[in-house]
Amino acid sequence: MILQNEFEQYLQNRVTENLKSPTKEAMGYSLMNGGKRIRPQLCFALLKGYGINPEIGFPICCAIEMIHTYSLIHDDLPSMDNDDLRRGKPSCHKAYDEATAILAGDGLLTKAFEVALDSNTTSDIKVKLIKALASYSGIDGMIYGQDRDLKAEKEKNPTLDQLIEIDEYKTAKLLTLPMVCAALLSHQEQDIPYLEKIGYYSGIQFQMQDDILDITQSADVLGKSTSDKDNGKLTIVSLLGLEKSKNMVKEYDGYLREALTHLHCDTVEIVKIFDFLLNRTY
Fold this sequence. Notes:
The chain has 282 residues and is mainly α. The chain has helices at 4-16, 22-31, 38-49, 58-75, 92-95, 98-116, 123-137, 142-152, 160-185, 192-216, 219-222, 236-240, 242-260, 268-279; strands at residues 85-86, 89-90. The protein has one domain (4-279): Orthogonal Bundle (Farnesyl Diphosphate Synthase), CATH 1.10.600.10.
C-alpha cells in the first residue's frame, strides 16, 4: 500500500478540523471505519507510475473517500438497503441515529469539495478536478446507478444489460474517478479515454466479484451484511448462477489487462491493485 499511514492521518485531520458536533463525530466514525482505500490507492499508483509524488493526490483522494463514505452511509439507511453492519461495525444510523446519519452523509459530500480545492495544482486543473468529482459521483454518475438499482428491485424480469448498467454507474464511476484525477494532476490527459475503459471494466468486475462473495462468504468475513438476496437485489449470481458469474469476472479481467497496455506510464503498482481485487476474499 502506498503512503497508507500518512493518508489515514490526513483523512483524520480533515474530518475533525474546525467545529465539533455530533454530526462531525458520525462523519469521522464512518470515514475512519477501515475500508480498503482502493480508490485512493488507484490514484497513488498511477501518480507514482507517471513519476509524480503520490502525496499530491491526498486532497482529491480524501474528497473521493468522503463521497464514497457518504454514499455508503445513505445506502445503509432503512429507506435504501436497510443494512445494520458496515465494515464489521454498526452502520452509521445504528451507531448514532437515522437523522444524524443523513446529516453525516450530507456533511461528507459537501466537505469533499472544500478539501478537493486544496489540491496543490493550477487553477485550471482544480476546475477540472472539481468537475470530474461532481460528474462521476453525481446524478449522471454514481447516483444514476443507485437510481437504476432501486428501479431494478421492482422489475419482474431483470436482464444482464440492466445489471451491467447499474454496475457501470453505481460502482465503476467511483473507481474511474481517482484514475482520471491522477491523469489530470500529472498532465497526462491523453490517457483519460483508456482510464475510463479501465474504470468501466474494473467496476463491473469488482461488483460482480462482490456479488459472488455475498454468496460464498459470511457476513463476519466480509464485515458487512449479505442482504442482497433477502432484499431481492439484482446480482450477477441471481441472473447467471455462481460458475457463469465467475467466468464473467475472468472475462472482464482480460479486457481490463488489455486496456492497461495503452497507458503512458509504469503500470506495476496499479497492476498489483487489480491483482488484489481479482483474488480478494473479502
